[in-house]
Design goal:
about 400 residues, alpha/beta, 2 domains, 13-stranded parallel sheet, two-stranded antiparallel ribbon
C-alpha cells in the first residue's frame, strides 16, 4: 500500500513537469503559423520579421520622443526676466518679458515686451511699442511720451503726450503741455493740458472712452459725443490769476502757526538744542553750511540706493521720509535760530520778547515769497542753514578733556 502511494505521487509529479514541455513542443507558434502577404511584391513574409521591423521603428520613435522630452525639460526661457528689473542707462531698450516691476531712469526708453507688474519710468523720451503690454500701472515722467501698446492705468507728466491707437484698460491721468489721444480707454480720462486733441495724429483712428472725460485746457477740444459714454466736463485754464486776499491771509496764518508750534516743540524737548544752535551759528558757520549742502545732496542719493537694494529698502524709505520732514522744518529751524541769536545780541531773555522777534523774522521770510528771485534764494539759504544745524547738532562730538589734571 505504501509502495503504491509513492508510485502515484511520483507519477503525478512527472505529469506536472512533462505537461509544459509537451505543450510548448506541440502547440504551433502564432508567429510561425500566420503568414502575411506583402502587397508590393506578393511574397509571403512572416509576421515575426514584420514585428522585428516594427520594434526597431518603435524603438527609434521612443528615442526621438525621449530627446524631445529632454529638450523641453531642460530648455530655459531666455526671453523672460523673473523678478523686478532696475535700469539706469543712457538708452534703454526693453525687449524681454518681465515677471515683476520695472524701474528705469534713462535718456531714451523703448518697451516692446510684456511687463507683468508696474512700470516706473523717468526719461527724456518714452515709447511704448505697438506690441508692448503693461499689465499694471504706468508711472511716467518725461519730455515726450508716446504709447502705442496696451496698458492698464497711466499716470503721465510730460510736455508732449501721444496715445496713438493704444488701449488703456482703466484710466488715463495726464498733465502735459500738449496731448493727443486716440484709441480705447476703458474708464475715465483726466487731463490738464494747454492743448488737448483727439485723433490729430490719425484722422481715421477710433476713439472710445468708457467713462467720463474731465479736462482743463486753453480751449475746448473737438471730440464726437458718441465716443464718450460718460459725462464730459471742461474747465478753461485761467492764465491771469488775480491775487486772493483770503488765500494769502490763510497762508500767513498757517505759516505763523507752524512756526510757533516748532518753537514750542523745541522748548518742550529742552533748551539744549536752542542753546547749542546759537553756539554753532557763532562758532561753526562753515560746518553748518557744508553739512547743509551735503545733506541736501547726499541724503536723497543714499535713500534711493537703499530703496533699490532689496535688503535695506525699509531703511531707505525711512531716510527719505526723514529727509522730507527735515526739509519742511529746516526753514522754521533757521528762523528760530537766527531769532534767538538776535535776542542774545539784544539781551532779550523773556519768552514773550523772543516770540515777538521770531514772529517778526517769520513775517519777513513769508513776505519774501512774493518776490520771484528773492524767494528762491532765501528758501535755499534757509534750507541749508536749518538742515546744517540739525546735522551738525547730531554729529558725534569729540570727547572733551577734563580741565582737572
Amino acid at each position: 500500500m505504501k509502495k503504491s502511494k509513492i508510485f502515484l505521487i511520483s507519477l503525478l509529479i512527472l505529469m506536472f513537469i512533462a505537461c509544459p514541455v509537451i505543450s510548448s513542443a506541440t502547440t504551433p507558434n502564432p508567429a510561425d503559423a500566420i503568414m502575411l502577404i506583402n502587397e508590393d511584391n506578393g511574397n509571403l513574409v512572416k509576421s515575426e520579421e514584420i514585428s522585428e521591423d516594427e520594434d526597431i521603428e518603435d524603438e527609434s520613435d521612443v528615442e526621438i520622443l525621449e530627446d524631445m522630452d529632454e529638450d523641453v525639460e531642460y530648455e530655459e526661457d531666455s526671453n523672460l526676466h523673473e523678478g523686478d528689473m532696475y535700469i539706469f542707462e543712457k538708452e534703454a531698450k526693453i525687449s524681454k518679458n518681465i515677471d515683476g516691476n520695472l524701474y528705469v531712469c534713462a535718456d531714451t526708453v523703448t518697451i516692446d515686451s510684456e511687463i507683468m507688474g508696474d512700470a516706473f519710468i523717468m526719461a527724456e523720451t518714452i515709447e511704448i511699442g505697438e506690441y508692448a503690454y503693461i499689465s499694471n500701472n504706468l508711472f511716467a515722467m518725461a519730455n515726450k511720451i508716446k504709447i502705442k501698446g496696451d496698458v492698464y492705468d497711466v499716470y503721465a507728466c510730460c510736455e508732449d503726450f501721444e496715445f496713438v491707437n493704444a488701449t488703456a484698460y482703466r484710466s488715463l491721468r495726464i498733465c502735459a503741455e500738449k496731448a493727443d489721444i486716440s484709441g480705447m480707454v476703458g474708464q475715465n480720462v483726466y487731463a490738464t493740458c494747454k492743448n488737448l486733441s483727439f485723433g490729430a495724429s490719425d484722422k481715421n483712428a477710433e476713439i472710445s472712452i468708457g467713462g467720463n472725460l474731465e479736462y482743463m485746457a486753453n480751449q475746448e477740444a473737438s471730440i464726437p459725443r458718441t465716443s464718450v459714454e460718460g459725462n464730459i466736463e471742461f474747465k478753461k485754464i485761467n492764465i491771469t490769476r488775480s491775487m486772493n486776499i483770503e488765500e494769502n491771509l490763510l497762508s500767513l496764518f498757517n505759516f505763523i502757526c507752524t512756526l510757533v508750534l516748532v518753537w514750542l516743540a523745541l522748548i518742550w524737548l529742552g533748551s539744549k538744542f536752542l542753546d547749542n544752535s546759537k553756539v554753532l551759528l557763532k562758532t561753526k558757520k562753515g560746518s553748518i553750511i557744508l553739512h547743509g549742502i551735503l545733506g541736501i545732496i547726499v541724503l536723497p542719493i543714499i535713500s534711493v540706493v537703499l530703496l533699490v537694494s532689496s535688503v535695506a529698502s525699509t531703511a531707505g524709505l525711512t531716510i527719505l521720509a526723514l529727509y522730507i520732514l527735515l526739509l519742511i522744518l529746516a526753514k522754521y529751524i533757521a528762523i528760530i535760530t537766527i531769532s534767538n541769536k538776535i535776542c542774545e545780541v539784544c539781551k532779550l531773555e523773556k519768552n514773550i520778547a523772543k516770540l515777538g522777534i521770531i514772529l517778526a523774522c517769520g513775517l519777513v521770510i513769508w513776505a519774501s515769497s512774493f518776490v520771484p528771485y528773492v524767494n528762491t534764494v532765501i528758501s535755499i539759504a534757509a534750507a541749508i542753514i536749518g538742515l546744517g544745524i540739525v546735522i551738525t547738532h547730531l554729529m558725534p562730538k569729540k570727547s572733551e578733556k577734563t580741565k582737572e589734571e
